[in-house]
Amino acid sequence: MGENFIVPNIIDNTPQRELIRVIKDQLKKSKEAKFAIGYFFLSGFSLVKNDFPGGLSPLPFLKIVMGNETTYPTKEELVAGYNLRELFKQRMIEDLQRQKITEEQINQLKALRDFVAKDIIDVKLFDKSRLHAKLYLFLTKPEEKYGSPGLAVVGSSNFTAEGLTQNKELNVLLTSREEVFSLNQWFDELWDEAVITLRKMINIFNALLTILTTS
User: Fold this and answer.
1) Cα 120 to the chain's mean position, in Å?
2) What is the pTM of this model?
C-alpha cells in the first residue's frame, strides 16, 4: 500500500479531509439533518450557520440529541436555560456572570436563538445513560425508493470547532440505502427517548442574553 493511498470515505481532519467540509457540503443539499453528539458548542454551530438551505420543509430541519454529561460551556449556553425555566437560580446566574463572555459568543448565541425560534433547529438531551455516539445524518432524498436517501457520518468528532477541523479524529462516511435507513431509525428512537426540547424556550435564550450583555 503506497504512502499516498487515500480512502475517500474516511475523514480524519488531515488537510483537505476535515469533517467540516463534509458537513457544510451536505447541509446545503439536505432536506433533513439529524445529529447525535456528546458535546455541542456554539463554536461548532458558528462554522455552519451560513450553510443551511433555503425553503426548509419539514421543520425542524436539524434535530440534535446531545449527551447530558457536557462540559460547562455547553451547559452555560444551552442547558442552563432549562434549569432556569421556572425561576432563575442565583447560583446559575452567578456562574454566568463570572465567565468572560466575548461579543462573538453573544452573537453566536443570538444566532442560535433565532434558529430555534424559527423552528429550524431543535435540541434534546439524552439522560438515560451516557451518550458517547457521534452521528451526523443527512437526508438528501428521504423519499428515495431504490437508491440511497442520503449520507451518514459515524466516528469520533463532536460538534465543536476543534472536533470538526483540528483534532485527530476518525470518521467514516456511509451511503448505502440500508445503512442510512438503519441509522435514521436509530436516531428517531433516540430522539423519542430524549428529554428537554429547546424549541419552546425562546424566553430563556432572551433571559440568558440579557444576563450576558448586562453583566
Assistant:
1) 12
2) 0.80
The answer to the question of residue 42 being in a domain is: yes
Tens of pLDDT along 126-183? Answer: 877 788 899 999 999 988 888 899 999 999 999 988 999 999 999 999 999 999 999 9
Looking up cell 449527551, which residue turns up?
67
Query: Which of 10, 30, 5 has the alpha carbon at shortest distance from 157?
Result: 10
Does any domain span residue 53?
A: no
What is the CATH number for 138? 3.30.870.10
Asked whether residue 90 is assigned to any structural domain, the reply reads yes
Q: Reduced to 3 states, what is the DSSP secondary structure of residue 42? A: helix
User: What 3-state class would DSSP assign to 174?
Assistant: strand
d(CA 197, CA 200): 7
Q: Which residue segment(s) compose the domain that 31 sits in?
A: 10-48+58-214
Distance CA 27, CA 15 (A): 21
State the total domains in the chain.
Answer: 1
Region of 137 (left: φ > 0; alpha: ψ -120 to 50; beta: rest) is beta
pLDDT at 94 over 60: no
How far apart are alpha carbons 180 and 139 in whole angstroms? 8
Render pLDDT for 31-83 as a digit per residue (tens, 0 to 9): 999 999 987 667 788 899 999 998 888 899 999 998 765 444 444 555 544 44
